[in-house]
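Handout, page 2. Input:
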Amino acid sequence: MFTKNTGVNTCARLLEKYRLSPKPFQPEKMVFSGVGNRDVYNITAPFEDEGELVIAGRVEARDQEHSEVYFFVNRGGEWVPREGAPVFQLQDPFYTRIGKELVFGGVQIFPHPEKKDSLSWRTVFYRGERIADLKEFAKGPDGMKDIRLIGLEDGSVGVFTRPQGERGGRGKIGFTRIPSLQDLTVEAIEQAPILEGQFSDEEWGGVNELHRLANGWIGVLGHIACFDGEGNRHYYPMVFVFNPDTLEFSEMEIIATRSDFLAGPAKRSDLVDVVFSGGLIRKPDGTAELYAGTSDAEAQKITMADPFGKFEREKR
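Output:
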């Protein structure tokens, strides 16, 4: 059985452990073109659609927050917009497969209903057998990002949430189980119990991608984040594993830092030390490729030992 979470994690505590761990290697910048003078970042890992690999990425001007999500395909070593693919008015795309369907989503921004000249956000979900068939089927609660879904062994759907405010502070992780995608409602998401003891009240985190492991546990790829004394943000990719039957979960582990990636520009000076986990490709040789957004300005990938491999070898 994995070591259970034994106390509140902080960025500083997890970084101390990470400094003693094997580091990722072979960082590589992803080359995107065909979107004008705009940045592509916070990408998904590549996934197959109609026989070819596709990456969804956030496309945005350096001085704006209004973004679009494009689907890119590799042409001669560069990732270019897929001809005829839909473009969504979203941020921070994600995907999973549940049954025979592709489930895709992202963050939709809209004018705040109460605060003048401010924005609010919600997570929007689409489903279809392929990208060309995607249709909206659900929305999350206003003000909630980082809602992720996973198909479970019994046919039900696991839902990871990220409440803020009175329940979640700056952002904590919740979990609930629903019978099917049709049951993904605002009420179900809002009522998901929080995984207690993961974050301090001054820090926050969320789930980015979910992996069903061979032993039935869920491998969670996410992020933990904090502010420093000058108000700069620090985002670190992290993982933990979760038992959907007992609701037990392991200690979080940071798996990379910004300095492990190649140097590059930042959207703003307070976002230099930001790595936003996009997706993880687990490989047969025991390694994994992490696809991530760096400094809210670029997309990179990096190779590491599969962070879920040691858990998958354990008995459930």
